[in-house]
Amino acid sequence: MTSDFDWKPLALVPVLAALALPLVGSPSTWLTLTVAGLAMGLIVFIIASGLTLVFGLMDVLNFGHGVFIALGAFVAVTVMGSMGNYVAASSFWLNLVALLPAMLVAMAVAGALGYVFERLIVRPVYGQHLKQILITMGGMIIGEEMIKVVWGPEQRPLPLPEALRGAFIFGDAAVEKYRVLAVLVGLLVFAAMVWTLNRTKVGLLIRAGVQDREMVESLGYRIRRLFVGVFVVGSALAGLGGVMWGLYQQTVIPQMGAQVNILIFIVIIIGGLGSTLGALIGALLVGLMANYTGFLVPKVALFSNIALMVAILLWRPQGVYPVTNR
Amino acid sequence: MSDALLRLEGVHTHIGAYHILHGVDLQVPANQLTMLLGRNGAGKTTTLRTIMGLWKASQGRVLLAGRDITGRPTPEIAQAGVAYVPENMGIFADLSVKENMVLAARGARNVDDIDTSRLEWIFGLFPAMKKFWNHPAGKLSGGQKQMLAVSRAIVEPRQLLLIDEPSKGLAPAIIQNMIAAFRELKAAQTTILLVEQNFNFARQLGDTVAVMDDGRVVHSGPMAALAEDEALQARLLGLSLGAHQ
Per-residue confidence at A27, pLDDT binned at 50, 70, 90? Predict the structure, then answer.
């Protein structure tokens, strides 16, 4: 980052947290809510990061992104269900034996579906936004129905592994163990993305492609291949996010993707379409806002994220970190 | 005239419902700088974009060193050795100068893989590139952005450079800098097809010239001949020419 780096959007996260402290009153409750908000935000970031790059690279509005979330969560139900002994074990490491394969299989299945989704549904409608919205929403509906066919239409439990239940106690504050794990996984994904985008040639191509894909092609790179790769990785990350979200809620339903979709779009609009750092800031703001308002004024909790988006867009109409050249 | 490196034969291009090129015949001799002149809307930019495969020719052929590249995907044409500097320069503003250069060097995974002597040669042509090496490209001035765009096109040896209006919007001092750089490129036996509106700029650099009007090449020949013939200039380039001299 250079000295010209715009720190203002980054400062919004601590500012929001600081503003909430006097409103919440109790520092221990504030700490609990803040960690919950950060955990929720980082899970949403995992899901949204792929979508924002897909839009940035190819101008594709994928309203079907939610299907990868639901698929990831249901795959986790199956994988963890088949490893009940490891899930029920009190050792964290034995829990990991179930959790890690669940995450990896969910990512693999969601990534594979992403490849098929791109070939069959997205590719025929490049450059046609209205058709993209309609056909990707249709794709999500079909995906949801397929999930119902395989796993049934009812709500399914996705219990937390034994060692992740309960909370760490800091004075009067209780911080749920799973939320700490969610924060760590989210930060790990963010670090991996930052490293890839800033330290590798593929990352350089993605960053350039988000700004001017025609010029990237003129330099001799096949951006469609790059896009397919990003779409698959984005789908896989949504699958991982689905596992994390399912464990966060401890239940999964086939429609969960559609429910999370609205949050994701708020996040990528706040962040600036195509911006990874913007998506992170947007996700953290959305997570914190949902938790603070859910505690302070539950009746406006649903509306609060829309209000946040409106406020941000009034300040920066292109999002907090607009991508140059778009 | 030396052998043509690039040859366009009866090229037509449609953009949507609009018929822009109406059978362009053009030859770009190897190791020379060919100027493509013409009024606004004559089809110069469309010609470059059609060569580059960004817009597809609906009829006719584009031959590069005898190989038919008509309708080939843009990345394939670039890999065949054609570098393109668009009118808007196509700079990646959020990337540093260094990152722009690494990206343009297809064979390089990082800056260490770029040929050092070539990089030094580029720094000699455009010292600002060295000075602002780690700066975001979006923070450069208009002239520096143009220098970066040209530097990017020559970071690796290319068969042909397609450059669209490099003098557009630049201050006179910067234009002189660009002219000096293009002279060096010519001396290095680079084949260039350069679109220009500024006749003074074109006259100083061109070996050969092609003038377009209404989607066709209406004149081609040595630049020196056109530069000496004011009546021909007036007929081919019209009143707009005077404004640029």
Answer: very high
Distance CA A195, CA A258 (A): 30
- A214 and chain B: CB distance < 8 Å anywhere? yes
Are both B167 and B238 inside the same structural domain?
yes
Say yes or no: B135 and B43 in one domain.
no
Which residues of chain B does A212 touch, with a Cβ-Cβ cutoff of 8 Å? Answer: 90, 92
Asked if B139 and A204 come within 8 Å (Cβ–Cβ), the reply is: no
Report the pLDDT averaged over residues B9-35: 95
CB contact under 8 A, A207 and B94: yes
Among chain B residues, CA nearest to A200:
B109
- Which phi and psi (to 5°) does residue A83 adopt? -125, 45
Q: Is residue A16 part of a domain?
A: no
Q: Would an 8 Å CB–CB cutoff place A212 in contact with chain B?
A: yes
CA distance A325 to chain B (A): 7
Q: What is the ipTM of this complex?
A: 0.91
For tokens 């706040």, name the residue: A270
pLDDT of residue A3: 57
Mutation for B interface: A215, A224, A324, most B CBs within 10 A = A215
| Alpha-carbon distances of A250 from A73, A156, A182, A243, B36, rounded to whole Å | 10, 9, 13, 10, 67
- The residue of chain A nearest to residue B96, with distances taken between CA atoms, is A2
Instruction: Report the number of distinct structural domains present in chain A.
Output: 1
What distance in Å separates the CA atoms of residue B86 and residue B92, rounded to the nearest whole number?
A: 13
- Model confidence pLDDT, tens digit, residues B46-96: 999 999 999 999 999 999 999 999 999 999 999 999 999 999 999 999 899
Is it the case that residue A77 has pLDDT exceeding 60?
A: yes
Confidence of residue A76 (pLDDT cuts 50, 70, 90): very high
pLDDT, position B244? 45
